[in-house]
Amino acid sequence: xxxxxxxxxxxxxxxxxxxxxxxxxxxxxxxxxxxxxxxxxxxxxxxxxxxxxxxxxxxxxxxxxxxxxxxxxxxxxxxxxxxxxxxxxxxxxxxxxxxxxxxxxxxxxxxxxxxxxxxxxxxxxxxxxxxxxxxxxxxxxxxxxxxxxxxxxxxxxxxxxxxxxxxxxxxxxxxxxxxxxxxxxxxxxxxxxxxxxxxxxxxxxxxxxxxxxxxxxxxxxxxxxxxxxxxxxxxxxxxxxxxxxxxxxxxxxxxxxxx
Length: 259
Known about the structure:
This protein is α/β, with parallel strands linked by helices. It folds into two domains: 1-88 and 221-259, 3-Layer(aba) Sandwich (Rossmann fold); 92-216, 3-Layer(aba) Sandwich (Isopropylmalate Dehydrogenase), CATH 3.40.718.10. The protein has helices at 4-12, 24-36, 50-58, 72-83, 115-128, 153-171, 183-189, 198-211, 239-251, and strands spanning 17-20, 43-46, 64-66, 92-95, 101-105, 138-140, 176-178, 192-194, 215-220, 227-230.
């Protein structure tokens, strides 16, 4: 069960100092929207350069970071360099058109390519969000139904890996089920959806958010000793990602370091 509204409310009532990749009118507009929403205690610090923003987080000059309109490639590259990471782990916080909040991973096109990587992503998500007190059920997705195993080698392998991933998660004490290709079923019954790979997850994210009237709150980076919320540059405003970052920071998420 995900209490997203409670997390955003905690961020709204906090006095966290949030770095964001915005300047000028976009920065002042987001600050005004926060104030108008009763979240005036949250302080925004705008950055033009990804290197300055990542260093400020590393030195704890700010409590958390939201990517804003800066380049994803540049910002994530700076994070990897600043923290000595060989990879970035992200999970998106989403809302369906009918208002149900859920998580989706992997969402980067170069993420979650292997069974081991998807296992790491789920375990990292559970660990990162432990301070929220949320009880998460994982819905593992594959590229077909069980009876579709003979329709292609990639489909057969995806189904086998889906079953194995569920077994691994259950062995780690995580409530998980294999929903095959039935994403609608998984979204209805689970809190954390696990796509077969990052390309599929990215397509799911874009279809939901840009076509299907769903909401995207941001994608926290899971393997940093701090809070960094990735966002799409196509947003009209960044209030929700800021509140997400502030709430996660206030609860102490992201302080365990790299998985």
